TrEMBL record:
Domain Peptidase M28: from-to ranges: 117-318
Stored SUPFAM superfamilies: Zn-dependent exopeptidases
Protein name: M20/M25/M40 family metallo-hydrolase
Bilayer-spanning residue ranges: none
């Protein structure tokens, strides 16, 4: 996430087998209310039979490349992030994700070095709903080389944000190989988030000018370590601004998505790539995160490496989020709404 030093929280060390689905319906809507009084009504939800699409080995395979020393911290405009881009493009191509534009690369117009978002799409299967889009995103850049600590100058950015990038790549692999989405899904990996959300600002403005019919933007940031002593597994920024958490929990059939007071206190809603889409489109736009200000102390440091992350946790989160994304993509009406 962007500019946490500016809000004085460095001491807190911030920032954030196949799943088989069956559609079920109920005569009466199911209600769920979160700690902020946010309520959702879902009349059709997905049920999970086998929640094991990915595993820690697959997560580790992606993470071990994205957060490797070879990529030199993935600074925007660098050779390292260019290697990451090629890797992401290859993953998209191999798993049936088409390029959203003429190529996967969306070149930034607001940054002085050549940088690009990677943007793919899986078209929806419903002839009407496919014209509604859900954007699932994460930033794949980090801060590159920094002041050495114990001879190490590479800020690998494993949690920030190879973790979110890996999650999005796995979501894309699932939908690209199963095509179970009625609405169309855009998968976007942003560059230059660390420079001021520049990649997402560029793409949000571009897509708004192209009249994209955007239903929701779901962003993933710092998901590499589990929450501690919480009764939910992931929180969203801007919790009180829509019913996304409540809808997610109905679909998941558990208290999966919660409210982190500290996220509201430090206004994290405005500090990741969901925010430009909120500004441009005024649709539900949130970041999913599992960093809670107590479980990770290597923000923008050389210590943000794979060795301190929990790949099993990451796989569990991806597996639990897949039916949530699938449910949101497949309901007849747009159940996720702004308050």
């Amino acid at each position: 996430m962007k500019s946490l030093l500016a809000i004085g929280v460095l001491a807190l060390a911030y920032t954030c087998g196949t799943t088989q689905m069956k559609e079920t319906s109920t005569d009466a809507a199911t209600d769920i209310r979160g700690p902020e009084g946010v309520k959702a009504k879902i009349t059709k939800v997905a049920s999970v039979d086998d929640n094991s699409f990915t595993d820690s080995q697959k997560i580790g395979e992606i993470m071990n490349f994205l957060a490797s020393d070879e990529l030199q911290g993935r600074d925007s405009g660098s050779e390292g992030i260019a290697k990451a881009a090629v890797y992401i493009e290859k993953g998209f191509e191999e798993n049936g994700i088409k390029s959203y534009y003429s190529t996967y690369r969306d070149t930034l117009s607001n940054f002085d070095k050549v940088s690009y978002n990677i943007v793919g799409v899986v078209e929806g299967s419903d002839p009407i709903l496919k014209n509604e889009y859900i954007l699932i995103g994460a930033h794949y850049d980090h801060i590159g080389m920094i002041t050495p600590e114990n001879g190490d100058a590479i800020a690998n950015g494993a949690n920030d944000n190879a973790s979110g990038t890996t999650s999005v790549m796995e979501f894309a692999r699932y939908f690209g190989t199963t095509n179970t989405n009625k609405r169309s899904l855009i998968f976007a990996l942003f560059s230059a988030e660390e420079k001021g959300l520049l990649g997402s600002k560029h793409l949000a403005k571009r897509m708004k000018s192209e009249n994209l019919n955007l239903y929701a933007m779901l962003n993933f940031e710092m998901t590499g370590v589990p929450l501690q002593d919480k009764d939910y597994q992931v929180y969203i920024t801007g919790y009180e601004m829509s019913n996304l958490a409540a809808v997610s929990n109905v679909i998941a059939k558990e208290n999966l998505v919660g409210f982190l007071p500290t996220a509201k206190e430090f206004n994290l809603f405005q500090r990741s790539d969901n925010y430009p889409f909120h500004n441009e489109f005024e649709v539900p736009s949130h970041t999913f995160c599992t960093f809670d200000f107590t479980n990770f102390d290597h923000y923008h440091k050389v210590g943000d490496e794979n060795e301190i992350l929990d790949f099993e946790h990451m796989a569990t989160m991806v597996n639990k989020m897949i039916p949530v994304l699938e449910g949101i993509a497949n309901t007849e009406g747009q159940e996720v709404k702004l308050k």
